[in-house]
Amino acid sequence: MDKFILTALKPAIYQPLHDPLISEKGLEVIVKRLDLLHPDVQGNKFYKLHYNLEAAKKSGLSQVLTFGGAYSNHIHATALAASANGLKAIGVIRGELVTPLNPTLEDARNQGMELYPMSREEYRQKDSATILKSLKDKFGEFYLIPEGGTNALAIKGTQEILEDKDLTMDFVTCPIGTGGTFAGLLASARFKQKLIGFSSLKGDFIISEVDQLLRKYGTQPNCAYEIQTAYHFGGYAKQKPTLISFIQEIKTKANLPLEPVYTGKMVFGLFDLIQKDYFPRGSKILVLHTGGLQGIRGYEQRLGIKF
Ligand SMILES: *Cc1c(COP(=O)(O)O)cnc(C)c1O
Fold first, then answer.
1. Does domain 3-39+152-303 have CATH number 3.40.50.1100?
2. Best residue for ligand 1 mutational test, from 207, 256, 262, 293 (most atoms within 8 Å of Cβ)
3. Which residue among 52, 160, 181 is best mutated to probe the pocket of ligand 1, counting the most ligand atoms within 8 A of its Cβ?
4. Which of 145, 176, 201, 267 gets mutated to test ligand 1 (max ligand atoms within 8 A of its CB)?
5. Which one-letter DSSP state was computed for residue 109?
6. What does pTM read for this prediction?
7. Residue 20: is the preceding peptide bond cis (ω within 30°)?
8. % of the chain with per-residue pLDDT over 90
9. CA of 38 relative to ligand 1 center, distance in Å
10. What pLDDT is attached to residue 3?
11. Would you say the C-alpha torsion 294, 116, 199, 300 has a positive or negative sign?
């Protein structure tokens, strides 16, 4: 990751998670704090963007364009990473731009991202040739990063998340959105490890989606894996009071900040699986904190709560 102007904090921070339930079940749980890798470009987005920005710069294009919702971690990370690399960023935002801008979009604009609202109807067609052409007509040539940032170069980047010492852990857990990060982990984990993904979306479709990603990008899983689909709390970006109080509790008891879209659901699911004796005694579990904490500000504003 050396040519990238963004430099990761090295070495990564590992935080042991202590809880009576974890000790009672004879487990060791360690959180890898990818959220602390870089002050602005948090977590898995750092890895997903790395080779894409490198490719954008190599191609000689001066700008990148991508898509996302109004609270998107991907939009936020792209704005900051592009600006740090001297690239202009255009963010096509689903729906209207509500003013004053929420903290996510305000940060993005402050980093120089041009925010371009697109109606939900058009947004659904955003990958069509017609919409792409209209965007090129409007903005000129750009390096395209898909919504959520998942493409071949993103998966190449996320294969670097696991370092040598992580490969001795029995289980690795990660939240899933598009599945791009999970696909990279699958390609880099060891044969003896088991990877557990926690989907933040409702439905089982994510299982075949991950299969498709693996096929599309020629990625061979090296290890056993399972995708948990029971911890979506109503669906993407939805939450319930039990999830919110769980996040508040973990922050107070374990000094671990989580957010409600991805990492909160994963750690909630993890505790549920521990409770249900999913993990054999003596197992070592590595929990990947994929970041996303920037989104908390918007949640606190909208829900009138504190995490
Ligand atoms: C984007 C994101 C994910 C999901 O990553 P995918 O590669 O889309 O599966 C997980 N956690 C956080 C905090 C994210 O911002």
1. yes
2. 262
3. 181
4. 176
5. H
6. 0.96
7. no
8. 93
9. 16
10. 46
11. positive
Strand order in the sheet with 14-16: 14-16, 28-33, 284-289, 171-176, 194-199, 224-228
> Are both 3-39+152-303 and 44-149 of the same fold?
yes
Q: Which residue ranges in the chain fall short of pLDDT 50?
A: 1-3
- What is the CA 248 to chain-centroid distance, rounded? 21
Q: How far is the CA of 52 from the centre of ligand 1 (A)?
A: 16
> Residue of the nearest CA to atom 10 in ligand 1?
175
Cβ of 264 closer than 6 Å to ligand 1, yes or no, is no
Report in angstroms the alpha-carbon separations of 225 from 123, 189, 192, 196, 290: 33, 10, 11, 6, 18
pLDDT recorded at residue 9:
73
Six token digits for residue 33 = 């704090």
Q: Which residues contact 128 (CB under 8 A, 6 or more apart)?
A: none
pLDDT at 11: 85
Q: What is the pLDDT of residue 108?
A: 98
pLDDT at 6: 65
What is d(CA 52, CA 88) in angstroms, rounded to the nearest whole number?
A: 14
Q: Compute the 3-state secondary structure of the chain and give helix, strand, coil in percent, each to the nearest 5.
A: 45, 15, 40
- Which numbered atom of ligand 1 lies nearest the CA of 148? 8
Domain ranges of the chain: 3-39+152-303, 44-149
pLDDT at 2: 40
Q: What does the block give as tokens for 272?
A: 């549920």
Q: How far apart are CA 149 and CA 168, in angstroms?
A: 29
Tokens of 7: 């430099």
Question: Which CATH number describes the domain made up of 44-149?
Answer: 3.40.50.1100
